[in-house]
Amino acid sequence: MVAVEASRVRGGRRLQSAYQGHVTSLLAKRPARRFSGRLMRQFPIVAARVLLRIGACREAYELVMQGQLGFRSTDLASWTARELFEHGEFEKAHRLLSKVAGQVDLEREHHLAFLKGGLDLIAGDEAAAVASARKAGCGYSDYMRPHQNMAARPAQNYVPNPLDSACGSRGRLFDLCNYTGQRLTHVGRGELGIGLFERALVAQSQLRGNVVPILSAELAALLTRLGIPLDQLRILAEEWTSQIGHLGMLDILFRMRDLGWWSGRPVLVVRRNLVANKPFSRLFERFAEVVVIGESVSQTIGEELLSLQRWYGMSFNVFPLPSGDVVPWQEAGALAVVQWEKEGRGHPLRDEYDRIFGSRAEVQDSFQRMREAFGMKPDDWYVCLHTRDAAHYSEVEGSGQTHRNSPIESYLDAVHFITDRGGWVIKLGGPNSPKLPPMDRVIDYARSRFRSELMDICLIRHAKLFIGTTSGLTNVAISFGVPCALVNCITTDAQLWTGGVRFAPKPIRRDDGTMLTQAQLTSSPWRWRQFDAGVLRRRGAQPYNNTSDEISAVVEEVEALASGRPPARCPSALVVRWQKQLAIPHYYGASTISSYYLKKYEDAFLRSGDDAEVPGNR
Questions:
Q1: Secondary structure of 18-84 in the HEC alphabet?
Q2: Cα dist. 96→70, 83, 84, 100 in Å?
Q3: Letter string b/e over residues 364-400, b meaning 16 or more CB atoms within 10 A of that residue's CB
Q4: In Å, what is the CA distance from 51 to each residue of 1, 97, 130, 613?
Q5: Band of the pLDDT at 2, cuts 50, 70, 90?
């Protein structure tokens, strides 16, 4: 491959890409294995690039360091450091960039400077991290943008405003901690990211206590018009509305306020074109002031308001509980769901939907026309079905989040169970989602002319139950109080699930066939390794889809629940064993694992001993 790369023969890159999976498998079994030969001495830079492309980043690092190749090619140094970061080799990446940084102008090599800043943070050197971030921002204005989560999807060519400079080192630290913390989660080291998210909160508190932000006359007038003093301002930035699952998180955030867990005057800042589901986002208009960039405020004032989140933004990543503990946001949300249900409270967003859309004739007419077009009678009941597939995000199989996907064929027995009981099944999803085979009383709404954002939530609102997975639409069903049968679940996060949820995780097995236990799935290190398919593969593990019998069983349990009948139950001793394996009692909110799944995998899933971690280390 080095010879092919050096001679620039066509097809060489495809060969390297094809070989990568094999290399990953070999390194999972023998991390010390080497792939380079004698040619590397003649073409060291080419050899290092080939090693990076096939996934042998540790060996590439050794080659780069031994030959001091980073001085000859900063691109190679940066590439090597990025790949080391992806593989969790933070010390090696930091050592490499620290060595190269002394020989280059970091304001010109701004991406390298920003990467070094994150590695400085992980190494515990905050002063160096801030210095690196400042140099990155001097060379590239996008690094001056306030940051909490990549889901905000910011545009490039950011124009900094005075607040981006006034925030100083604490503001740089706020942005860098949030960014690096999220990237740590992406590469399977989320336990390190939690500490950085908490550090971002400390930096925010220090900034608020030491630097009074000077607002433009226009922004000051906006806050005056809204009647919001600075000390009461709580900014909810764009990441809260850019994905439909995040909108469901927003529902829980406002429930936390009702529980007395936080106070203040929230301002929801959005760009209309980035809102995941506009009708669903309308349901929050009575819970917060909504500022639409480009409509209710100018682009300039909107960006200035977003820059204020370094002082007054609500964290998207962690939440300070009333006890004083700072925990991952989803863990706090799951605890809030448990407390909410204990107090017997209702479903605020369902009430808002009914108030805004329930009596609108055009909504009801569209809903009835769709039902009639597919042959449904007025009193026919239905369930919604949503599976996660690669089409929505144009994913490449075997990488990123593809391990969360599942084949529609494995759901057909569950579909027949519903239709045999007289119900209909309406499949939600994107227009390019996998086709359902023709079946009686089954509607492939996702690929129909009736599909719209409003109809999506209308169908979920009126469904008898929702069949889904760990994806965004599930949060809509949760917000509306619809009973949920959730299958093929895999996640690093605690879940915002109610008592009306029954679920089945994807079994994850190591290369030797051993199944990960419930304790391992909710504790470090395996909890965080579940985020990415590549991370799991490099750690010698692979998730497997739920089988058709498991899916059908969960659906049967929830259909009974939704019909007022008692669902199948596990022996109480078995449920207690499962609960004891959870790292935190509310990891899955108020929900319960499928009885069938628990009995099927009892011996492997609930085993204890030297080969299964003890729960408690999140």
A1: HHHHHHHHHHHHCCCCCCCCCHHHHCHHHHHHHHHHHCCHHHHHHHHHHCCHHHHCHHHHHHHHHHH
A2: 8, 12, 10, 6
A3: eebbeebbeebebeeeebbbbbbbbbbeeeebeeeeb
A4: 9, 19, 32, 34
A5: confident
| Cβ contact 373:444 at 8 Å | no
Q: How many CB atoms are closer than 10 A to CB 285? A: 12
The alpha helices in 344-428, defined as continuous H runs, are 348-356, 361-373, 412-420
Q: Which two tokens stand for residue 376?
A: 């449904």
Collapsing DSSP to helix, strand or coil, 614 comes out as coil
The residues, ordered by sequence, that sit 6+ positions from 351 with a Cβ below 8 Å of its Cβ are: none
pLDDT in tens, 44-89: 888 888 899 888 988 888 888 887 776 788 888 899 999 999 999 9
Cis peptide upstream of residue 567 (ω within 30 degrees of 0): no
Nearest to 89 by CA among 131, 123, 54, 133: 123
Interatomic CA distance for residues 93 and 611, integer angstroms? 31
Residue that has been written with the tokens 């026919």 in this structure = 380
Evaluate whether 445 touches 216 at the Cβ level (below 8 Å).
Answer: no
What b/e string do you get for 144-181 counting C-beta neighbours within 10 Å, with b at 16 or more? Answer: bbbbbbebbebeeebeebebbebbebbbbbbbbbbbbb
Q: What is the CA radius of gyration of the chain?
A: 26
**pLDDT, tens digit, for every residue of 466-480?**
999 999 999 999 999
Ordered strands of the 289-292 beta sheet:
233-236, 265-270, 289-292
**What is the distance between the terminal CA atoms of the chain, rounded to a whole angstrom?**
42
Q: Which of 200, 263, 193 is nearest to 228 (CA)?
A: 263
Neighbours of 22 (CB within 10 A): 11
Q: Round to whole Å and give the CA distance between 86 and 302.
A: 34
**Residue 610: pLDDT band with limits 50, 70, 90:** very low
What pLDDT digit, counting tens, does each position of 395-445 carry? 555 557 788 889 999 999 999 999 999 999 999 999 989 899 999 999 999
* CA separation for the pair 314, 247 (Å, rounded): 15
Joined tokens for residue 583: 């790292």
* pTM for this model (two decimals): 0.93
Contact by Cβ (8 Å): 87, 52: no
Distance CA 253, CA 258 (A): 9
CB neighbour list of residue 383: distance below 8 Å, 6 or more residues apart: 418, 423, 424, 425, 426, 463, 464, 465, 466, 467, 559
Q: How many CA atoms lie within 13 A of 222 on its CB side?
A: 21
By the 8 A CB rule, do 168 and 211 touch?
yes
